[in-house]
Specification:
Blueprint (H helix, E strand, L loop, with lengths): L2 H37 L4 H35 L4 H14 L1 H19 L4 E6 L6 E3 L5 H16 L6 H5 L1 H21 L3 H10 L2 H34 L1 H7 L1 H31 L4 H31 L14 E3 L7 H26 L4 H15 L7 E3 L14 H14 L1 H4 L30 H10 L1 E2 L5 E3 L8 H23 L12 E4 L4 E3 L7 E7 L15 E7 L10 E4 L2 H11 L10 E4 L5 E5 L10 H13 L15
Parallel strand pairs: 9-10, 10-11
Antiparallel strand pairs: 1-2, 3-4, 5-6, 7-8, 7-11, 9-12, 12-13
Helix pairs in contact: 1-2, 1-5, 1-7, 1-8, 1-9, 1-12, 2-3, 2-4, 2-8, 3-4, 4-5, 7-9, 8-9, 8-12, 9-10, 9-11, 10-11, 11-12, 13-14, 15-18, 15-19, 17-18, 18-19
């Protein structure tokens, strides 16, 4: 991160930390402290005034830091490099950008909150030894509830200033909703820590213990909400486990998760051990220990919030290629192997039994040590069998192809294969090239089904780094030094397309779900389209050799878009059809169909609404697709047997 990015992230985090403190203090004052103050009427005014002062200070900090954040963001957005230019650009950023508008709204809300938090003085009475005005009574309910509401609104505006607000659509709305709940829960828990610290130091120990017990339901509920919403954000912003462990965004999130775990441990100690001691025979030591623990919690909570500010500055993990840091990765492929499935299931059941026995031993003290010993023995025997749930991994294991399986990439990959791979793998990829017999390991058959068991990232690693023979030497050279990364991805696209074409040639079907190659087309009215424009529609692709007007095929069909696959540039003459713009598209479909270029004429391919290749027909085969009734029957069968948009195919091309 640059120095400017660090400053922006720090200001963002500190601003949110002040908002969290404000909201948490008001929640504590409204919901938690009332029971304790009712039991301690003598000390209640002093505590009320202290908490009110904390809320006002938090509001002031939020306003000041928010202003500084706006100024620094103005420097970034406007690219200014001096004070005068920045001041001229400041109103523009504040009034004409979404960021500035939401930040101004938040500032207005905070000013109103500041007005609602003015304490009511009680004549000339002064709190002893504090110099603080005595409060006549707690603030009226309406102003305080209004302050809580406005502080909560100011806090939950934060997603609109970050990644969630920029995403839009259903995913963006879901993320905004989850972040709103996340922020409110963080405010209710973390923002209440400093008020709890003040309360324990202000009230007598019995009444302080009451406040701790009153805080427990709020803290527990907040922790559950934080955990649930964090899972959703990991999925939508981090890209699941690969993004969590393999991206910069995920690494910052792991720091946040680790701090969260420490906070939970401290909170458990406070509630399960120190709270009861606070109301016990040695309250002074318990008070000292609890205040120390809460002070540490407060500092860690502030660090967690500031860490979240750095997360908002980082590019989300879903937009990065995750670099996997471990030599193994989890895999459920073992469940597809009947000989190994039972072994893994048995081991999982045994581990479950060990966990149950451990819990039982912790509950029933008489059985504790026998149960723990037996559980340890069962776990020790079962856990080694769970190694079957791990497979070898590489730094690129979770990379996905950036080409989107483009027709141009497939065609280019075919040329690269002929120039670099035929000598070992053979022209058809069967591993029977002229130098195959001289190699220490027989080259892989690239038309075999095992190709689809490897992810894009694994294929990229193999092509880039090659293989070493077990006895030493190179079994397959890596191409990282001779081919660019773009070229290696093109080669991988060709390998997938060629494998699918070999299956079509030998069995008459694509044995594995294959996405339609990305291509551009031009329609009869002259406008250009690509596959993204046709998402959600069924496509009928017809390979033609001449003018589209010579076709005797009814092109118009409800809910179906017809694309004419041309070997060279031609104009669409039928208003119901579009024509492919690139000659490489013809080559790519010939490879996928397993036929020479010249033999593709007349072939028709049906693509479903999720853009999977589903069916094909060649002239002379049964079920003439030029017959509307026969074609309608094929379309109906396709609709009755859909393939999900995210079906795992060993590679992911759609982004």
């Amino acid at each position: 991160m640059s120095s400017v990015e660090i400053i922006v992230a720090s200001l963002r985090g500190a601003h949110v930390a002040a908002l969290v403190s404000l909201f948490g203090t008001l929640v504590f004052l409204t919901l938690v402290a009332r029971a304790a103050m009712a039991e301690a009427p003598v000390d209640a005014p002093r505590l009320h005034w202290r908490l009110l002062r904390l809320a006002r200070v938090s509001t002031a900090f939020a306003l000041v830091i928010g202003t500084a954040w706006l100024v620094v963001e103005t420097v970034v957005i406007a690219g200014t490099d001096d004070i005068a230019t920045t001041l001229r650009a400041l109103p523009v950023v504040a009034w004409q950008t979404q960021f500035g508008q939401w930040l101004l709204l938040r500032g207005l809300l905070l000013l109103v909150v500041l007005g609602l938090l003015r304490p009511r003085r009680a004549g000339l009475a002064v709190a002893p030894m504090l110099g603080a005005p005595m409060l006549r009574a707690p603030m009226p309910g309406a102003p305080m509830l209004g302050a809580v509401l406005l502080a909560g609104i100011a806090l939950v505006l934060q997603p609109l200033l970050g990644h969630a607000g920029a995403i839009g659509g259903g995913v963006g709305a879901t993320l905004i909703a989850s972040e709103v709940m996340h922020l409110l829960a963080a405010g209710a828990w973390l923002g209440s820590l400093l008020p709890l610290f003040i309360t324990i130091g202000t009230l007598p120990h019995n009444f302080a213990a009451t406040a701790c017990r009153s805080f427990t339901p709020i803290g527990l509920s907040a922790v559950l909400v934080l955990a649930g919403t964090a899972v959703l954000q990991v999925t939508d912003l981090m890209g699941d486990m690969p993004g969590l462990f393999g991206t910069g965004y995920g690494h910052v999130a792991l720091v946040k998760v680790g701090l969260f775990g420490v906070l939970l441990a401290l909170a458990a100690v406070n509630r399960l051990a120190l709270t009861d001691r606070l109301a016990g025979a040695a309250p002074d030591a318990a008070r000292r220990h609890m205040r120390t623990s809460i002070a540490i919690e407060t500092v860690l909570g502030a660090v967690v919030v500031i860490t979240a500010g750095f997360l908002a500055t980082h590019t989300p993990g879903t937009h990065e290629e995750p670099v996997w840091p471990f030599p193994w990765r989890p895999s459920l492929s073992v469940f597809a192997e009947p000989d190994l499935r039972g072994e893994v299931i048995g081991a999982l059941v045994a581990v479950g039994v060990a966990v149950i026995m451990t819990v039982a031993g912790m509950i029933w003290r008489r059985m504790r040590w026998p149960a723990l010993v037996v559980a340890a023995i069962i776990a020790a025997r079962a856990i080694p069998h769970l190694d079957l749930l791990l497979v070898e991994a590489f730094p690129t294991s979770f990379f996905t192809s950036p080409t989107e399986f483009a027709a141009t990439a497939i065609a280019h990959g075919a040329k690269l294969f002929a120039a670099n791979c035929v000598a070992c793998h053979g022209a058809e990829g069967h591993g029977d090239g002229p130098t195959a017999k001289s190699l220490p390991i027989h080259p892989a058959d690239l038309t075999a089904q095992h190709l689809w068991a490897h992810s894009d990232g694994e294929m990229f690693w193999y092509v880039s780094h090659g293989f070493d023979a077990p006895e030493g030497g190179v079994a397959m050279p890596g191409f990282a030094g001779t081919l660019s990364s773009e070229a290696r991805w093109d080669l991988i696209d060709y390998l997938h397309a060629h494998n699918a074409g070999d299956s079509m040639r030998s069995t008459g079907t694509w044995s594995h779900p294959v996405p339609v190659p990305q291509f551009d087309a031009t329609c009869a009215d002259g406008h250009a389209i690509d596959l993204d424009d046709l998402r959600g529609r069924v496509l009928r692709i017809i390979a033609v050799s001449g003018d589209a007007a010579t076709l005797s095929v009814p092109l118009a069909a409800r809910g179906i878009t017809t694309i004419l696959l041309a070997r060279k540039h031609m104009a669409a003459t039928d208003p119901a059809a579009c024509v492919t713009s690139e000659p490489e598209t013809w080559t790519a479909f010939a490879i996928l169909s397993g036929v020479p270029d010249d033999a593709l004429v007349g072939e028709q391919v049906l693509v479903d609404q999720n853009h999977w290749l589903r069916a094909h027909w060649r002239p002379g085969e049964p079920g003439d697709w030029n017959d509307p009734q026969a074609f309608a029957s094929v379309v109906a069968d396709l609709a009755a047997h859909p393939i999900a948009a995210d079906t795992g195919s060993g590679h992911a091309h759609q982004h």
